[in-house]
Automatic annotation (TrEMBL):
Signal peptide: none annotated. It comes from Streptococcus dentapri. Pfam families: MarR_2. This is MarR family winged helix-turn-helix transcriptional regulator. Residues 1-143 form the HTH marR-type domain. The lineage of its organism: Bacteria, Bacillati, Bacillota, Bacilli, Lactobacillales. Keywords: DNA-binding, Transcription, Transcription regulation. InterPro entries: HTH_MarR-typ (IPR000835), WH-like_DNA-bd_sf (IPR036388), WH_DNA-bd_sf (IPR036390).
Amino acid sequence: MSVADNAQRYSRLRDEQSSLFELYARRNGLTGKSLLVLLWLYHSPQGLSQEFIAKRTYSTKQVIRSIIKNLQAETYIILELSKKDRRKKIVRLTDYGRRYASSLADPLARYEQEAMAVLSQEQQEVLLEATAVFSHKLRQILEEREV
């Protein structure tokens, strides 16, 4: 197969994975982006700035503000002034929000582990290495070309 064929195949597989996460989010009453924000917060108990969340999820500040507003209305998160920069707010899960995020993140992690377990150790390492290299290069190309 040609590079173009493989790129297209990989793109379709990546789209399928993305759609699977969207489905999981939707089945749990969330958007995919809201789930992604919750997962970032769940794995960052110290809290994160809205700016960091936007950067890491490749989202606009407006999208993140909207998600934060909705999560705050559900009492899943709190906003605190940053100790380092009082102009910034740090987003943290409340205890209630941590339990809620755990009810989503922990099963999802088990499902991912179950799916990964069908691969041999060698296949897992190749998958991880190849995905890291591909993602790094694609990010570099998109940033250079300001796409």
